[in-house]
Amino acid sequence: MNNTDNTSFIISSLPCTGDAILSELADNRERAELLVNRIAFALDELDGLLTRHCPVLEKAVPAGLVKKVKESLFGAYEVSFERDAFKKRTAKALNALFWESALTSSKLNALHTFHERENLIKDIQAGNCPAFDRDTLFSTVADQITNRWATFVGTVIETFDSLDRSMVTNDGIRFGNKIILSDMYQKDSWTTNHFSDSEDRFTDLYRIFMVLDSKDPTSVYKAGHLIKEARAWEQDDDWKDLEYFRVKKFDNGNLHVVFHNVDFVERLNLIIAKHGEHLLGKRNAKASKGVQ
Predict the structure, then answer these.
(1) pLDDT tens by residue, 16-69
(2) What does the DSSP assignment read for the chain?
(3) Domain limits, the chain
(4) What pLDDT does 145 receive?
(5) What's the pLDDT at 78?
(6) Percentage of the chain surpassing pLDDT 90?
């Protein structure tokens, strides 16, 4: 088995979902819908318990009992209660909450980049998600499992492409034994530079190495915190040893990263060579100059 095949095997064997958790979420979503329907019917019935005569409409209309009950619970919200509108709003909110819970409590998006994970959560919170039901949930899970190798490859390629090529150390066609993440910190400070995505890319890189090491990448949300922990034991200007890298911050805010595991780097370069078709021109240019 070559390195690429071995990496593919590691990906396929990773436990990317928590089936018991997802099954429980599906059950709870169904129960939530039943409860919402009961609430809707109860509020509808409540609205008819007290009426007043409307001279304009010349008929009895709800006297606002639901409005008063809701105000006592949640504060002023709306004048009248419409069952269908209530159920529609609530279903949208429930779908978002349950999809977000499914993503954060399982391993569904473990192999995506930090930006992909964050954007997906934002879309879900905005209500841009399908109905959360058992069939859709497990169909999504099956699709994620089927495509997780392609997802991992995409994360490797995107992380590699994101490196600042104005830094000579950052090779354009392969990982060397060292890379530089530019502007990860503010100059002359350990404060993260929020105008740069280098910390997110460092997290992606760290999680990639965790996957290659057959470890659960979801245990690390922000890898920059690992550097912060290392600082507690070493001088600020020293190189700091993490599990997969040796890192050092320079006064210009750049983070220099030296890889510990040559085998992992070679596996990444095999993936880049096989799937980085957009780099072919750069490879040919190097070859024509006699650079190996």
Answers:
(1) 556 777 888 889 999 999 998 898 888 788 777 776 666 666 676 665 667 766
(2) --HHHHHHHHHHHS----HHHHHHHHHHHHHHHHHHHHHHHHHHHHHTSSEEEETTTTEEEE-SHHHHHHHHHHSS--SS--HHHHHHHHHHHHHHHHHHHHHHHSSTTTTS-HHHHHHHHHHHHTT-S----HHHHHHHHHHHHHTHHHHHHHHHHHHHHTS-TTSTTS-SSS--SEEEETTSB-TTSSSB-TT--HHHHHHHHHHHHHHHTT--GGG-S-THHHHHHHHTTS-TTS-EE-SSEEEEE-TTS-EEEEES-HHHHHHHHHHHHHH-GGGHHHHHHHHHTT--
(3) 7-147, 152-277
(4) 81
(5) 53
(6) 41
